[in-house]
Amino acid sequence: MLRVHDVRIRYADRLAVDGVDLTVGDGEVVAVLGPSGCGKSTLLRAVAGLEPLDDGTIVLDGHDLAGRRPDQRPVGLMFQDHALFPHRDVGDNVGFGPRMQGLPADVVTARTREALALVELAGAERREVTELSGGEQQRVALARAVAVHPRLLMLDEPLGSLDRALRDQLLAQLPEVFGRVGCGVLYVTHDQDEALTLADRVAVMRAGRLLQVAEPPVLWSQPVDEFVAGFLGLDQVVDVRVADGRADSPFGPVPLPGAREGAGRLLVLPDALDLLPGGGAGSGAHEGPGLDGVVVRRRFAADRTLLVVAAAGRTWEVPAPRGERAGRPGTPVRLRLDPTRVHLFAGRASGG
Ligand SMILES: Nc1ncnc2c1ncn2[C@@H]1O[C@H](COP(=O)(O)OP(=O)(O)OP(=O)(O)O)[C@@H](O)[C@H]1O
């Protein structure tokens, strides 16, 4: 439905967007994920018609958007600073787009009602924007973006200004809203949680270029390089040497059928490791790939407890076993590696 082809956008002497190709299908949610300054917003602004292209094309529903003003493009926009009109009430804010489209008053009213219901603010038309909480304001901004019945909904860091609890709450609601709106969605964020939670496909951007566009499980288990992995929080990477379909790693030999020979870097996925049950250091030598280490500390993540284990000159994280005394600092343990939960980075000499 949306086809961005070889788009370049230059500010003075620097390319903010450098040869980007990206598609969004009807009903598909695509997240553009990348660090601050990588060009995400510029790309989104270009699709909205707020930034001229230096090169490339943007086609929506088969129509080249070149020369179409922002208000002539069938897109809905929502930004981090929601930019609601403070002196108008909720209904006037949400009805703004449909009014600008020249729709009759009764249609504007119906669109407004429908959009507010969608974000669970039914009946809030006459409330003052200034009296709403931050989360409610963001929902009004979302309602305003969908009230125009866009073909493409574009959101730029829509949850960026919210505190953690509100952010999580809205994050949980967004998939249903997107599903009910039913149009394509382009979602810009620097937060990998948001991208992986919401998107059918994630495009990872760095310095104006897209490094990888993939479905979340693929991105997570087969990142193209260490930057993409690191940006997703995957940082358990070790040097290996591959020969005869096996990687010689600190865990011992790891089978990698078909992998290219030579030096490489092996990503150990977060779910690859557990503790050998009942195993102190030195036990389980015949249990497949493993590594002896010592518990450093416990770490509480949102929904589980992890043990930080020192082994082979670095630390690793494994799910903590149940039980009060299990995994006390100083306890010798044996890490067990699931050899199917690793990924060898395709690289110069080490690809595979
Ligand atoms: N109007 C402008 N004039 C000159 N340079 C700009 C302009 N807008 C953006 N840039 C530069 O272009 C690059 C990309 O900016 P952009 O806002 O697209 O990045 P971003 O990934 O969205 O970052 P953030 O999440 O911080 O907004 C940055 O280096 C930025 O400084």
Automatic annotation (TrEMBL):
Name of the molecule in the record: ABC-type quaternary amine transporter
Keyword Protein biosynthesis: no
Keywords: ATP-binding, Nucleotide-binding, Transport
Domain ABC transporter residues, every copy: 2-232
Enzyme class label: translocase
GO MF annotation: an example: ATP hydrolysis activity
Species of origin: Egicoccus halophilus
Gene3D superfamilies noted in UniProt: P-loop containing nucleotide triphosphate hydrolases
UniProt cross-references to PROSITE patterns, sorted A to Z: ABC_TRANSPORTER_1, ABC_TRANSPORTER_2
PANTHER family: SPERMIDINE/PUTRESCINE IMPORT ATP-BINDING PROTEIN POTA (PTHR42781), SPERMIDINE_PUTRESCINE IMPORT ATP-BINDING PROTEIN POTA (PTHR42781:SF4)
One Pfam family cited in the UniProt record for this chain: ABC_tran
